[in-house]
Amino acid sequence: MILLGLLLLIIGMLVGVPLLTTVGGILIVVGAVLWILGATGRAVGGRKHYF
């Protein structure tokens, strides 16, 4: 999710589409939060890992 967000962020900045930049930033933040929660051992959505 973080990689997809980073890819969309870069494409959005290069092409100049603000929607892609916004969606990419949101995906990076959500992916980072899920990664941190999973790394601490906290169950996310009933699963220890979200992937």
Automatic annotation (TrEMBL):
The chain crosses the membrane at residues 26-45. The keyword Membrane applies. This is DUF3096 domain-containing protein. Keywords: Membrane, Transmembrane, Transmembrane helix.
